[in-house]
Write a structure and sequence with these properties.
Blueprint lengths: L2 E5 L2 E5 L1 E12 L8 E13 L2 H5 L9 H14 L6 H15 L3 E10 L2 E6 L2 E9 L3 E9 L4 E14 L24 E11 L13 H18 L11 H15 L3 E7 L5 E3 L18 E3 L8 E5 L6
Antiparallel strand pairs: 1-2, 3-4, 4-5, 5-8, 6-7, 8-9, 9-10, 10-11, 11-14, 12-13
Helix pairs in contact: 2-3, 4-5
The structure holds uric acid (URC).
């Protein structure tokens, strides 16, 4: 999305903003003295009427990107109560679109660093945190007329199962060497982003912290669908089929979500077979010893949305 204009018979699109604005926020007034902490990496993009800055060196309609950065800290300070990352993105976007006549739309992207409360001897610590793995993300756009789009997501959700995965029946041609198998490891690093059905600021029906609850619940549905029940698991005939099941489970479970995009790289663990001239079988692969690899990896992604919903 960008502001489109015609200048001197040419199409011109522009946007400006600030990337990688990092902010940490502590709320110290939890019950029983418990502290809450978040660390956010904020990206701001504004669509605004400031063409003279590009074509005639007139900066009078420019919101300085330094001001955008400062606004993150001002708004963080103003949030006297704990807010979800989505709510913070919405309030920033609302500020930019309502405060500046020049700004027609704002897009706010935030990645939350996975600080998790530590437990000592099974007891949650009041003010101690350790870094977890997967990251909570959000992307919000707000237009001056109140139109709204909210997506939430997770990235870096690394999942692996040691069995209940196979891959057979694919196209075989002169370049195919991959054997068919009904027994393999399945490993991936899920990136998911899901869009809520709200389309205007006035239609948000969720309480602010419901976004956080939904984030945790969606993650649970994704993970449970990937693995299946603890004892039996669930067979995966391909990454594609598992991805589709995961997306379908999320849409089935959460009426507030209108579409979901999933990226699931197929991270390969290669069977190890070692032989030499003198010893044809030094190590024979028996679904036990693997060579873990980062690259190359398969890349599999898809999105699934309700019909009539915006993707
Ligand atoms: O689940 C899979 N999907 C593929 O598309 C593919 N391609 C491949 O080589 N291995 C796999 N596995």
């Amino acid at each position: 999305m960008a502001a489109k204009n015609q200048i001197d018979g040419l199409n011109f699109e522009q946007r400006h903003g600030k990337e990688r604005v990092r902010v940490g926020r502590v709320w110290r007034h939890g019950k029983d003295g418990r502290h809450f902490f978040v660390e956010w990496n904020v990206g701001i993009t504004l669509l605004s009427d400031c063409i003279p800055a590009y074509v005639s060196a007139d900066n009078s309609d420019i919101v300085a990107t330094d001001t955008m950065k400062n606004t993150v800290y001002v708004k963080a300070k103003e949030c006297s109560e704990k807010v979800s990352v989505e709510e913070f993105a919405i309030l920033l976007a609302k500020h930019f679109t309502s405060f500046y006549p020049q700004v027609t739309s704002a897009i706010i992207k935030i990645v939350e660093k996975p600080w998790e409360r530590i437990s000592i001897d099974g007891q949650p610590h009041d003010h101690g945190f350790k870094l977890g793995s997967e990251r909570h993300t959000t992307e919000v756009f707000v237009k001056k007329n109140g139109a709204l789009g909210v997506t939430s997501g997770v990235e870096g959700l690394a999942l692996l199962k040691t069995t209940k995965s196979g891959f057979v029946g694919f196209i075989r041609d002169q370049n195919t060497i991959l054997p068919e198998t009904r027994e393999r490891m399945l490993a991936t690093e899920v990136s998911a982003s899901w869009r809520y059905h709200f389309d205007s600021l006035s239609s948000i029906s969720m309480k602010p912290l419901c976004f956080t609850e939904t984030y945790l619940d969606v993650k649970k549905v994704l993970v449970n669908t990937f693995f299946g029940p603890p004892k039996e698991g669930v067979y995966s005939p391909s990454v594609q089929a598992t991805l589709y099941h995961m997306a379908k489970a999320v849409l089935g479970r959460f009426p507030v979500i209108s579409s979901i995009q999933l990226k699931m790289p197929n991270i390969h663990f290669l069977p190890v077979n070692l032989s030499s001239k003198d010893n044809p079988v030094i190590v024979k692969f028996e679904d036990d010893v693997y060579l873990p690899t980062d690259e190359p990896h398969g890349s599999i992604e898809a999105s699934l949305g309700r019909i009539h919903s915006k993707m």
